[in-house]
Amino acid sequence: MNPAMQASVTSAGIRRGIRGHGLSGKIVVVHSSLASFGTVEGGAAAVAQAFLAEGCTTVVPAFSYWYEVSPPPGVRLERNADQSMLPASRPARGFSAGLAEVSPEMGAIPAWVAAHPDRRRGNHPLNSFAALGPRADEVIGGQSPRDVYAPLRAVAAAGGCIALLGVNLTAMTLIHLAEQMAGREPFVGWALLADGTTIPARVGSCSRGFEGLAAALAPAEAVSVVGSSRWRVFGAERAADLAAREISRRPGVTSCGDPSCAQCRDAVAGGPIGAETIWGSVR
Prior knowledge:
Blueprint: H1 11-20, E1 27-32, H2 43-53, E2 57-61, E3 68-69, H3 108-115, E4 120-121, E5 129-132, H4 136-140, H5 150-157, E6 161-165, H6 174-181, E7 187-192, E8 198-203, H7 214-217, E9 221-226, E10 229-235, H8 236-249, H9 262-268, H10 275-282
Parallel strand pairs: 1-2, 1-6
Antiparallel strand pairs: 2-5, 3-7, 4-5, 6-10, 7-8, 9-10
Helix pairs in contact: 1-2, 2-3, 5-8, 6-8
């Protein structure tokens, strides 16, 4: 069918999709492409509000990469994906959890959630999550610069789910948690805060190779189509366990295949060495 002839996706249709996956009332991490639906009546707000209307606590990535800065002079970690090679320029302002902006690549739906006056945003200057709904505080409250994936552990512990709406596994941040579960150290970046201080913050690796985990994650996956958007939904706890097991068995499964990718090289090797000394010096 010509895309121009497709009917608009409505809030009711999105709610049917949510119910079809048994997501009503659950905590759901939503990774999304609004464009994947075709035309949505009400846009990003309609998608997010459909999850809220079904009683979901809706969690989105609210990453804000522009607060990243170079580490202090003389600070360099081995196997840290060349984080010390960032430009020395500083952002015009620093991060605080009260800010609404997210990096454009997060998409329209995370941007809407992060700008909502009732949302809770995590205390992480580079890889925060934002949440709306009855369990938002429970999910978001544990995130810190040192514990970047605390919200995802909370989602898994609460029986929550991951929903990929028109995107693939390269958008699935839970796989970074699985890397940590498999014994990899997350990388350490540095970020500027609103008070002018520079702090270290744990960050993820390259995700371009994550579709290589598709077969391992298939037992935890359910698929549907809403409008023209292909939905892939996973139980968070099971998916994290399956991915961690596969990463432990085949460390190279997460690699993007680019031999020049420092993130994949160092992640597969286990991540940074000596990161705890960095944390001990600032906290």
